[in-house]
Amino acid sequence: MTEMFTDRLYRKAAPIWDAYLEHPFVKGIGEGWLTEEKFKHFMKQDYLYLIEYSRIMALGAAKAPDLTTMSMFANLLHETLETEMQLHREYAGRFGITEDELEAEEPAAVTTAYTSYMLNVSQIGGAENVIASVLACAWSYNHIGKILAGWPGALKHPLYGTWVEMYASDEFTKLAEDCKTLMNQAAEGRTERELKTLEDIVVKTSRFEYMFWDMAEHLETWPTEKFERER
């Protein structure tokens, strides 16, 4: 059986993704003991992240080499804007947070660094760089969702069950698989040097994903914020 480029990427990213499942924030969702304060901070920052993620999907459609690829990017953009972000809006409503308040939130340092990196590599390369920059997010969330869905009580949790259900769903699985398909298509016929560049993007974004979980766990914004408040 011929190995796909995404098989190589998974082997490279697996140690990082395994660490997600041991992270206290992710375990807290799966086991149901994560504090609402931390989850609220995560949802606000992730909403801002998804706005930039959507911009990158739109950039992918603009850079697409053919109509089929353009259509796939457009569909990924639609699902992000209308499905994934709607889940965030619904959760925000439970906390009494309006959509205006979500959009007015200031991106934390990690959120800014992560999205800036994705936008940068997407702008300087072709559609292959775009899909490499968004792949780890979609694929790893689906990976996490499917595993957490198997943990006792995770799907039935009154607050976090909906989150787990969405990322483990057939609909989100298709979105992740579409991303993998785009990645494998983009990798066809490329030199080892070009493949290594794409691999590096996926590894770096996987590292940023871990940092994002860490940011949420520790309620991080900017390290200088406490000094700014004192002035």
Description:
- The radius of gyration is 18 Å and the shape is globular.
- The protein has helices spanning 5-22, 24-31, 36-63, 67-94, 99-104, 109-124, 127-149, 161-168, 170-187, 192-217, 225-230.
- The longest helix is centred in the first third of the chain and has 28 residues, at 36-63.
- It has eleven helices and no strands.
- By secondary structure, the protein is mostly helical.
- The mean pLDDT is 94.
- Helix 3 (36-63) packs parallel to helix 6 (109-124) and helix 3 (36-63) runs antiparallel to helix 10 (192-217).
Oligomer: single chain
- Written as H for each helix and E for each strand, in order along the chain, the element string is HHHHHHHHHHH
* Portion in helices: over 70%
Total number of strands = 0
In terms of DSSP E residues, the strand content is under 5%
List unreliable stretches of 5+ residues. Answer: none
Shape: globular
Structural class call reads mainly alpha
Mean pLDDT, as a whole number?
94
Please report the distance between the alpha carbons of the first and last residues. 63 Å
Give me the number of helical elements.
11
